[in-house]
Amino acid sequence: GAVVSQHPSRVICKSGTSVKIECRSLDFQATTMFWYRQFPKKSLMLMATSNEGSKATYEQGVEKDKFLINHASLTLSTLTVTSAHPEDSSFYICSAREGLGETQYFGPGTRLLVL
Amino acid sequence: DAKTTQPPSMDCAEGRAANLPCNHSTISGNEYVYWYRQIHSQGPQYIIHGLKNNETNEMASLIITEDRKSSTLILPHATLRDTAVYYCIVSPSGSARQLTFGSGTQLTVLP
After folding, report:
1. Strand, coil or helix: what is B72?
2. CB-CB: which of B41, B44, B93 is closest to A102?
3. Is residue A85 within 8 Å of A15, Cβ to Cβ?
């Protein structure tokens, strides 16, 4: 199957700083990428959908000015958590879909810990 | 998107078939049934999907009832590495629709 990578795999930062997470589709072009968040013992919750070259669509309750998403190319999307706080500590997972393909492929996730 | 109902947990003996059920009684005609699994602290892994015919790949088989209101994921010979949370999701294909994850089934394969 298609491969999606994320970097970094884990990050620890101080409260008030910003953290950037990269999501790359390694062997296909992803016109649509999705960002999810998962808290311990909970299911994945969609944060936003991004299409290459256009603004991301955020789910209700997700602050677009806090979680900046850029999908500048067909193989790369980035999520920047700005002014991170301890409550932003979570497991962030991206997924990517090729064109109008039927399947989403997920990255391995990034564990963020804000101190 | 149609909602799905899955048992919260199941056990299976190693080497035996694991049959994971899913109810999706409100599924629409253009919605596919997708199965993903998530091993602890990893991203979800795609397993299989189908519309109305049964499907099989190297990982699993998907059996969809004729009325499409339920389905069963079959892992023919479960191994310890198949221990994971299994998610059944229904979603239209060919669009930018996201996948909505429920709580899934925690499958534990026992030695």
Report:
1. strand
2. B93
3. yes
Nearest to A31 by CA among A98, A105, A95, A110: A98
Residue A44 predicted with pLDDT over 60? yes
The per-residue pLDDT for range B57-111, each reduced to its tens digit, is 999 999 999 999 999 999 999 999 999 999 999 987 655 567 889 999 999 999 9
8 Å CB contact of A91 and B44: no
B39-62 pLDDT per residue, tens: 988 999 999 999 998 999 999 999
Confirm or reject contact between B43 and chain A (CB < 8 A). yes
**CA distance linking residue B60 with residue B74, whole number of Å:** 6
Nearest to A33 by CA among A94, A86, A91, A87: A94
Residues of A in contact with B100 (CB under 8 A): 46
- Mark which residues 62-101 of B lie under 8 Å from A by CB: 87, 93-96, 98-101
Sign of the torsion angle spanned by Cα atoms A22, A37, A72, A68:
negative
Residues of chain B found within 8 Å of residue A109, distances taken between Cβ atoms: 41-43
B7 in Cβ contact with B105 (< 8 Å): yes
Residue type, A49: T
Query: What is the pLDDT at residue B66?
Result: 95
